[in-house]
Structure formats: structure tokens, C-alpha cells
Specification:
The chain is an alpha/beta fold. The protein has 2 domains: 2-248 and 454-477, Aldehyde Dehydrogenase, Chain A, domain 1, CATH 3.40.605.10; 252-443, Aldehyde Dehydrogenase, Chain A, domain 2 (3-Layer(aba) Sandwich). The protein has helices spanning 38-55, 60-76, 78-89, 93-114, 156-168, 182-192, 208-216, 229-236, 263-275, 295-307, 327-341, 376-379, 395-403, 418-427, 461-468, and strands at residues 2-4, 6-8, 11-13, 17-22, 29-35, 119-122, 133-141, 145-148, 172-175, 201-203, 222-226, 243-247, 252-256, 285-291, 348-353, 356-357, 360-361, 364-368, 386-392, 407-408, 410-414, 432-435, 451-452, 455-456, 469-477. The chain has a 7-stranded mixed sheet with strand order 15-18-19-14-13-21-22, with helices on both faces. Strand 8, helix 5 (156-168) and strand 9 form a beta-alpha-beta unit. Helix 2 (60-76) runs antiparallel to helix 4, helix 2 (60-76) runs antiparallel to helix 5 (156-168) and helix 5 (156-168) packs across helix 15 (461-468). The longest helix has 22 residues, at 93-114. The model has no long low-confidence stretch (mean pLDDT 96).
């Protein structure tokens, strides 16, 4: 069995316990990682503070080159890292390979960002009384960053927290998901080998209780979290004076308007968005609103495509649907589908529904004729392979339904109408609108984040650097 150790100061450290990591297809443990106790957590906090004092003064070329070396290391070890992601997260190997490539791109973006100007010369002499004053500001790192990462993108979502920190000169302590810690530990090794301070990135597997204490620790100036809204906002309440960057849940919707171009391609993309990786993506398509004129064709096309999908072994699969992270998660989603089908007022029926075997849950395509309020598959984040399709007559009606969710990460709109795009962009309360692709589209360079219960702040390296830094002003009186 593979054993993963913790590192501080460039050396392995002994931990008080071990946490098993399970192969998501077989359910069997295949590795174990060190678990930090209170003492080790305190040492890690102190080490992160010490690293920050050095990193904040590191020249931009050193930060740039280190990020570039991490990117090169990710590509060099891409095959091994993809298999690691596939096993510990249950992610189909094609998607795991794409995640490794995205993580490399994230660090390349950080390398570019490290040497970009982060300040401005200001004209303070705009009034006569300030004629002798000159000013400029620089954005400086606020302090050490505390990062909590989720299970579903165990490499690239860690990269999105670490790469901006290294780019701007901040140390970062990562508490990975206990379900998928190996990818974060592998990335930590690549960062250690990149030539910055050995504690520039510390990976600290520990209990949720001890992690909660870290959130309240004044040593950290920034807290960045990706996960559920309930946990995220509970942790934010413990942040005190920290800046909090929260990337939380989603219940992403897509609108298929009457003039949607390339309908077959759109249905292929929406099927992948709804069911790839068993729907365990916060911007996966969960709701689709279809114009009356296309509803029957779209519903039949989605059901037909869903019927071709079944969970496959992640490291060998050529498909996109693997197991869910555990049997309890699969049972929860299955129960939500049962609840919807049993509703007497919503008129829910299944255009397609597959069965469940432990953590292996097949797709469900549902539609409803009545009022769906109160149904969790419509109002909450399913985070599983379920899709609800509804019809609309007027675009304004569809926009209102999309906005009815308490979440606001991203939405999709399929149309050839510039007016429809403008109306949707103006009306939808979301962090991003994706036109003629599903809401699950994300470029690692774009500002990514949501509104309402979907979080605070924006990721994307250059945008996260703004979250990790603050302007520091210099004013000089001349003569």
C-alpha cells in the first residue's frame, strides 16, 4: 500500500495517525496518508508564517520561474498524476488527463502573472494644494493563505488556490479533502522541487475539527474555500478579519431557445455536461428550459443519449461516467429522484432512469408538468447524474425560472439571437453566462465565481491575485 508523508521545512515529519484512501471503483484502500494532530498543525502554521516573510520579498523572476517549473513537472508526470486522480476521485481517465493539463495551464498563467505590473502611478497634483505631491501604489500580498480544497477536482482546484499565491508572493497552507489528498500531496512535492521556500506550499491532511480551528487562526490573512454553501458560510463566520474567497455550490441551468443552432451538437454537449464524472461538478447542467417548439425533440434526444451511458471503471473507461465518490452520495441522489417521482403536484416523470449499485449511479432525465417548488432535484445542488427538463413559451419566463434558484454560478443559453443574449446577460443573476455551450464551460484564465449562495470573490489566476493582495500607497512631497 502506498504511503504519503507530510513535509515541513523540506523534510518528512512524523504524524500521529494515518488516513486510508480508497479506490472509488473497488471501494478498497490503496494508499494511506499522514494525519496531522494539534501539535503538527501548530508547526505548520508557524512554518507558513515564516515562509511568507521570505516569499513576499522574492523577486518576480524567481516566482515566475518556479511556477513554470511546476507546470513542466505536471506535464512530465501527467500519466501518473492522471491515474492518481482517476483512482482516488473516481474520475474517468480522459477527464483526469484533462484535469492534469488544466493544472499545468493554471501554473503557466501564474508564471505570466508573476511579472505583470501590480501598481500604478497616480496624479495627486490635480488641485493646487497638492501640487508638490506625487503618488504610486503597489498591490502587496496580504499574508499567508489558508486553502480548503474539494474532492471533485483534487489537482486543478488546488492549483487554482496555490498558483496565485506563488505568483504574488504569498505562502499557502492547503487542507485537502480527506477523500482525495494524494493529488494535493503530489502537487506539494512539485512545488517543493520548484526552487522557492520549502514551505511555500504546505499540504496538511487533518480532521475537520482541527481544520476549523485553523480558519480562526490570525496567522492567515486570506481564507479560500471550495465546497458546499452550508460548510463554506459556516467557516466564513469563523474568519474574523480574514479576506474570504468562497467558491460554493451551483444548480446550473441552460436555456434552449427556439433558434438554437446545431441542435444535435448542443444535445451532445448538454448530455456530457449533465452526466460526465457522475455529475459531480458544481457547474454541471442540472436544469434545462426548452422552448415549446423544440421541447419534444430535445427531451427525446437527451433521454436517448443518457440511455447510452453507464458507470465504467475510471482507469480503463473510454466513456465519461464513473462512480460517485461514495455509496452514500449515490443513495442521496437516488432518493431525491424517488422523491420527485412521488410528488403529486409537480407531475414529474422519468424520460430515462438507470439504477444504482453502491456508488455506481446511472443517469436520470426527468421532466415535470406542474409546479416543482420544494423538489430538491430542482431547488438544491444535486451534485449527481440527474437532469430536469422543462418547457417554456417566452424567454422572460425561462429567465425568471433560472433566477428562481438560490444559486448563481453560471448559466447556458443556446440561441442565434443577439437580442436574446443581451436580455439574458442583463437579467440573469449569475457569475457567468455561456452562449451556445453548457454552463459547465470554464477557462482557467477567466474570472470564475458566483452570486447569491454560490459564493464570494473570483478565481482565475489573475483575478485570485487581486483577492490575495491589497493596494499599498506611497505618497512623496517634493521640495
Amino acid at each position: 500500500m502506498h504511503t504519503a508523508d507530510m513535509w515541513l521545512g523540506g523534510a518528512r515529519v512524523e504524524a500521529c495517525g494515518r488516513l486510508p484512501v480508497h479506490d472509488r471503483w473497488t471501494g478498497e484502500p490503496f494508499a494511506e496518508v499522514a494525519q496531522a494532530d494539534v501539535g503538527l498543525c501548530r508547526r505548520a502554521v508557524a512554518a507558513s508564517e515564516a515562509a511568507f516573510r521570505e516569499l513576499r520579498r522574492a523577486p518576480s523572476h524567481a516566482r515566475r520561474d518556479a511556477c513554470a517549473r511546476v507546470a513542466a513537472g505536471l506535464r512530465r508526470e501527467a500519466a501518473e498524476l492522471a491515474e492518481l486522480v482517476a483512482r482516488e476521485a473516481g474520475k474517468p481517465i480522459s477527464l483526469a488527463r484533462a484535469e492534469v493539463e488544466r493544472a499545468a495551464t493554471t501554473f503557466e498563467l501564474a508564471a505570466e502573472c508573476a511579472t505583470q505590473p501590480r501598481g500604478e502611478v497616480l496624479s495627486l497634483d490635480r488641485v493646487a494644494s497638492h501640487a508638490r505631491y506625487a503618488g504610486r501604489y503597489e498591490r502587496v500580498p496580504l499574508g499567508p493563505v489558508l486553502a480548503f480544497s474539494p474532492f471533485n477536482f483534487p489537482l486543478n482546484l488546488v492549483a487554482h488556490k496555490v498558483a496565485p499565491a506563488l505568483a504574488c508572493g504569498a505562502s499557502v497552507l492547503v487542507k485537502p479533502s480527506p477523500r482525495t489528498p494524494l493529488s494535493a500531496l503530489a502537487l506539494g512535492r512539485l512545488v517543493r522541487e520548484a526552487g522557492l521556500h520549502p514551505d511555500a506550499m504546505i499540504v496538511l491532511p487533518t480532521s475537520d475539527a482541527l481544520a476549523g480551528e485553523l480558519v480562526a487562526d490570525p496567522a492567515f490573512a486570506v481564507f479560500t474555500f471550495t465546497g458546499s454553501d452550508s460548510v463554506g458560510y459556516a467557516l466564513k463566520a469563523r474568519c474574523a478579519k480574514k479576506r474570504a474567497l468562497l467558491e460554493l455550490g451551483g444548480n446550473a441551468a441552460a436555456i434552449v431557445h427556439h433558434d438554437a443552432p446545431e441542435l444535435g451538437r448542443a444535445l451532445d454537449a448538454l448530455t456530457t455536461s449533465a452526466f460526465a464524472y457522475a455529475g459531480q461538478v458544481c457547474i454541471k447542467t442540472q436544469r434545462i428550459y426548452v422552448h415549446d417548439t423544440l421541447f419534444d425533440e430535445v427531451l427525446a434526444g437527451l433521454a436517448e443519449r443518457a440511455a447510452r451511458l453507464a458507470p465504467e471503471e475510471p482507469t480503463a473507461a473510454v466513456g465519461v461516467l464513473g462512480p460517485m465518490i461514495d455509496a452514500a452520495s449515490a443513495a442521496r441522489v437516488d432518493a431525491w429522484v424517488d422523491e420527485a417521482l412521488a410528488s403529486s403536484s409537480a407531475g414529474v416523470r422519468a424520460a430515462h432512469r438507470a439504477g444504482r449499485d453502491g456508488a455506481r449511479l446511472g443517469p436520470a432525465v426527468l421532466t415535470c408538468q406542474g409546479e416543482p417548488r420544494g423538489l430538491r432535484v430542482v431547488e438544491e445542488e444535486a451534485f449527481g447524474p440527474v437532469l430536469v427538463v422543462r418547457r417554456y413559451a417566452e424567454l422572460a419566463e425561462a429567465l425568471e425560472e433560472v433566477n428562481a434558484s438560490r444559486y448563481g454560478l453560471q448559466a447556458g443559453l443556446f440561441t442565434d439571437s443577439a437580442r436574446a443574449i443581451d436580455l439574458a446577460f442583463d437579467a440573469l443573476d449569475v457569475g457567468g453566462l455561456i452562449v451556445n455551450d453548457p454552463p459547465s464551460f470554464r477557462s482557467d484564465a477567466m474570472p470564475y465565481g458566483g452570486t447569491k449562495d454560490s459564493g464570494l470573490g473570483r478565481e482565475g489566476v489573475a483575478h485570485a491575485v487581486l483577492e490575495y493582495t491589497a493596494p499599498k500607497m506611497l505618497v512623496t512631497r517634493r521640495g
